[in-house]
Amino acid sequence: MEASTPRVTAPGTVSLWAPVRSFLAKYGLILVLLVLPIRYGIQDLQTDHNLTRLGTNIKDGLSNGSIWALVALGYTLVYGIIELINFAHGDVFMLGSFIAVGMYATLGLTTSTGVGGLFFGLLAALIIAALGCAVLNMLIERVAYRPLRSAPKLAPLITAVGFSFILENVGLLWNGGQQQSVPDLIESQKELFSLFGITITHGDVLAIGVAIPLLIFLAGFVQGSRLGRAMRATAQEPEAARLMGINVDTTISATFVIGGLMAGAAGLIYALYQTQIWYFQGFTAGLIAFTAAVMGGIGNLKGAVLGGLIIGIIQQISDNRIGTEWTPAIVFGYLVLIMVFRPQGLLGEETREAG
Amino acid sequence: MNALRNVRRWWSAFTQRFYENPNLRYVATALVLGLVAIVPFFYDPASGFIDASTTALAYVVMALGLNIVVGFAGLLDLGYVAFYALGALTMGWLGSAFAYGAGNGKGIHIGVSSAISHIPGIHANFLIVLVAAAIVCAVAGMLIGLPTLRLRGDYIAIVTLAFGEIVYRFALNGDQIKFGNQALTNGSQGITPVDKLDLPFLAPFQSLNLRPWYWTALAMAMLTLLVNARLRESRLGRAWIAIREDEVAAASMGVPLVKTKLMAYATGAAFGGMAGAFLGSYLNTVNADQFQFAFSIFVLSMVILGGLGSIWGVALGAVVLTFVNRYLIPNVLNDKAQSWFNFDLTQLSFSIFGFLLVIMMLIRPEGLLPERRRKMELTEGVGVGETELIEVRA
Where are the alpha helices (DSSP H) in chain B? Predict the structure, then answer.
């Protein structure tokens, strides 16, 4: 659509800054990302003479981050294919949590349910939450984005915001305005085993154990399957894809369905892991997951996962060391730094948007 | 659907007449402004209607400021709330007892009436605060603009969003940041009370008589309208539109990209700051909860609903959305719902707002009063050819 800005560098002049600049462009972001772990790692070594606390932070961050990664995938898939920031996605994730928790009661899952019952019950809740979110996401696309595909680019952004408000209102009516505690079915804080002094809890195993297979499955799907190839083709050039006989509308619908499935799965994991849900969780999660998607390079699936994990770790370190109330400011501060040093993200190609 | 089509056709024909005939436009402008100016006489001085109207006018200033950035220069800004926050905080810092240690506890007073000249804290005249807020926000706007200069499109949106959230977090947790004994902000407790407006030659404003507030807001809105209209025709304004249309072409025609973009951010931010300072005094509190992301979206919705880049459209969008939010949903619709269905509609206000946004965009994605140039592009396909050329070359 738009061509990239020409770089204004006078030909023939060799700047002393050139090597510095190229070094920063390559490794600047990585250096910036390492600031927090190194700073607190040194502090831990001085006070505790080991890295257990930092390790625990990183472990918690990875668990949290795998949830963000699942949500971020929804953003990155949709952005990759229709260049829309799907603001409603975070709220779809929130409703995924609500559906999953609603299923606890329907299926009679309580903290005293046996392991087998819990496994199949949670599997059913996972499937229903994922399907619910998938259908919801697909309907939103059909109603709010598809009719606007030829409209000015900002129009679908506004309908996305509109749907985000509507979904938040649904959540508000469903569970009220307060944080609601959820039965801690899997005893998520209970120790399973411990590694170098870092306690691995049930919640960690669940979050990583569900998220990683899903991510691998998704990567394989997009890479290998016919629909996945259609998705990539549409992302690259919708018109050409249409000429090659790809049904672009169906492909875009499928993208939203996949994003919804991931969001629903993330919703259940979030409910099990955090044991608290509320109608506003989708907003925060949406912003964080979107940051993750951008950090990894928007449109890039592996990037979204990497970004999610990194954001999870930053968030956990900041929650634990600096204070929960400052975490969003730190996460967004990192976002700005990424944009300065490496607008295309960690794994992204230089795109026309960022270049 | 047919009735809907008729309404759309009628509205297009109606607006077309104004696009074509400048005399009709001047008469209509004078008529609208005259009507708006005498509205307060028909309502009780402390009525909810005047309250909503005053807020609407302040939002007109804000939306027109955002319109410079998004509508004229085409830089999508999702963090406009930052300037509302900074403007309101400037009002809080310079017009309340918050900086109680200033002037060795006696306070600093610049051009304020004798009624508040013994209260500690910094108290400056509203006009001074207005200028200060505009300067603070213009500088902040440039600082926020700097990292986005290399970026395009949605990436700008994300960076501005991030800055908006960072400013909100600083406003919220500012009570932890101390300079000596002085905190930066008062968090979600809010800085309150804030000095009432006190303009030269006029008695200090009262909180029970909203008419002077209304007229002040109206004057600010009209001034902003005028400045916007003149700016758009100016060299700078044409440079903004050139950048919006095609950045590469603009640069090769000699438009200085960096300067022009930064000017857009600074000007847009200054208006946001002035509206923020007014609202800080009008609402009598500078509270971090006012500065959430949803507000950025609220103002952006006004701009898009009205018609990106269209000055009158944006003003209309601001008035319409404020009334929907402040008056229609809580007062009118809710009364009906209470009496007919015995149901509290305020619980659904989010949904109704969201629903209206969706419907509005589906029916009329170009906005209520689209800018002439944009309308041309949409209907006659001007600009499509250029896009293809660029695609081929790249």
Answer: 2-20, 22-38, 48-66, 81-94, 126-145, 153-173, 211-233, 235-245, 247-252, 257-283, 293-306, 311-323, 334-341, 349-363, 372-380, 384-393
- Dihedral of CA atoms B129, B134, B138, B140 in degrees, nearest 10, equals 40
Can you tell me the ipTM of this complex?
0.80
Q: Tokens in use for B263?
A: 């000017």
Q: What is the pTM of this model?
A: 0.83
At which residue do the structure tokens 């190229």 appear? A22
Residues 98..157 of A with a Cβ closer than 8 Å to B: which? 143-144, 147-148, 151-157
Nearest to B350 among A147, A169, A343 (CB): A169
Q: Is the peptide bond before A156 cis (omega within 30 degrees of 0)?
A: no
* CB within 8 Å: B157 and A85: yes
Give the CATH number of domain B50-393. 1.10.3470
Average pLDDT over chain A, rounded to an integer: 82
Taking residues B338-362, report their average pLDDT: 75
Distance in angstroms (rounded) separating the CA atoms of residues B104 and B270: 32
Q: What is the pLDDT of residues B2-40, one digit of tens each?
A: 777 888 888 888 888 887 888 888 888 888 888 888 888
Measured CA to CA, the distance from residue A175 to residue A101 in angstroms comes to 11
User: Which residue, chain included where needed, has tokens 């407006």?
Assistant: B197
Q: Are the CB atoms for B353 and B86 separated by under 8 Å?
A: no
Domain edges within chain A: 69-298
Tokens of B243: 């950048």
What's the distance, CA B312 to chain centroid? 13
The domain segmentation of chain B, as residue ranges, is: 50-393
pLDDT tens for each residue of A86-143: 889 999 999 999 998 888 888 877 777 777 878 888 889 899 999 999 999 999 999 8
The predicted pLDDT at position B389 comes to 38
Polymer length of chain B: 394
- Report whether B276 contacts B91 (CB < 8 A): yes
User: How many Cβ contacts (< 8 angstroms) between chains A and B?
Assistant: 159
